[in-house]
């Protein structure tokens, strides 16, 4: 009986200590986690698709695979510049016009992710609610802008999954863990 009481007290004490160790920034940590998944999928897709397939598109009325990545790169700058309180160093459509080789597209995407990483890294729960200039005009919270960016990446990743599957490739989110 005493063993059960000691065990119950130990479990209770442990649960209190776990609860006391809650993260300091749970909201911004969650926003960052969403970004980390989205960027991993985007960067992984750029590596999975063979370079000779960057011009692939399933029908004539949509962007090519490379144009999708280039579009995401440009949009990343627009969203993350707004969250950082800066003027975007690149226009949203810039890379769709200028990055025409797989190497240039991959570099544009990687550079845009690095630029955004700074915005997500700096985010805290205290700064998340700050109202700043919106990515496409108006005003929005820093958290809202960054969640919008992650959502935009995920929206286009959905397109990219289809492009990869049509080409017999496994998207990064479906690939086995290593």
Defining traits:
178 residues, two-stranded antiparallel sheet, Four Helix Bundle (Hemerythrin (Met), subunit A), mainly alpha
Notes on the protein architecture:
- With 178 residues, the chain is mostly helical.
- It has 7 helices and 2 strands; from the N terminus they run H-H-H-H-H-H-E-E-H.
- It has a two-stranded antiparallel ribbon.
- Helix 3 (65-84) runs parallel beside helix 5.
- It starts with a helix and ends in a 12-residue tail after the last helix.
Distance from first to last alpha carbon: 46 Å
**Number of β-strand runs:** 2
Average pLDDT confidence is 90
Strand neighbour order, sheet with most strands: 1-2
**Pattern of helices and strands:** HHHHHHEEH
SSE layout and pairing:
Blueprint: H1 2-20, H2 26-48, H3 65-84, H4 94-98, H5 102-122, H6 125-128, E1 131-133, E2 139-141, H7 142-166
Antiparallel strand pairs: 1-2
Helix pairs in contact: 2-5, 2-7, 3-5, 3-7
Care to give the gist of this entry?
The chain is mainly alpha-helical.
